[in-house]
Amino acid sequence: MQSVNSGSQSAQNWNPNLGAADLSSLIGTLGKLQQQMPYLVGLSRGERRKLPKVGPLTRSFVADALATAQTNPGLLPRSIDITGLRSRADTLDRLGEVKRTLAQFLEKVDDTEVLLASEVYAAARTVYAVMKTPAAVPGLKERQDRLAVRFARKSKSRQTGDNSTVKPTE
């Protein structure tokens, strides 16, 4: 079994349950987060591609340039608002913190989804296996056939795209 270790939780008592009311509350909370950040934008792939890439070296460059501009106010034309630029740089740093926190949260959501899917799939395979035994409840043949589709193998002619008829040898 997979390791479920989140603080005091153990695999034996791990029983996640996200009810409809909880889901609605979570979606509402995410909506409130978006309202707190009305400046968030959505870029198309093309727009994103056109923008310069800003990694750690560029961020260091930006910080040094802003520090230089702040200590030498006569260096820049008056049309450039150094206070506004500093505010944007600070917001950029804070967004990085938000992004890291959200990334950790999303990783946990993803891991939980993977684990739940694995457990549910394992249980479904058990149901299917039991349905194939003589001890299965009569009258489930149609359902068994529907479940069997998941494990049906494609014939070689279907896998390769060969539509010719193969005659059996005698």
Q: Helix content range of the residues, please?
A: 55-70%
The quaternary state of the protein chains shown equals: single chain
Q: Uncertain segments of ≥5 residues (pLDDT<50)?
A: 164-170
Q: Provide mean pLDDT, rounded.
A: 85
Largest sheet: none
* Radius of gyration, in angstroms, nearest whole number: 29 Å
Please give the number of β-strands. Answer: 0
Q: Globular, elongated, flat, extended or rod-shaped: what is the shape?
A: elongated
- The structure class reads mainly alpha
Number of helices: 6
User: What is the terminal separation in angstroms?
Assistant: 49 Å
Overview of the molecule:
The chain is mainly α and 170 residues long. It contains 6 helices and no strands. The chain starts with 19 loop residues before the first helix and ends in a 10-residue tail after the last helix. 0% of the residues are buried.
Give a short summary of the structure.
With 170 residues, the chain is mainly alpha-helical.
Question: What is the topology?
Answer:
Blueprint: H1 20-36, H2 45-50, H3 56-71, H4 82-131, H5 141-148, H6 156-160
Helix pairs in contact: 3-4
List keywords for this structure.
mainly alpha; elongated; disordered C terminus
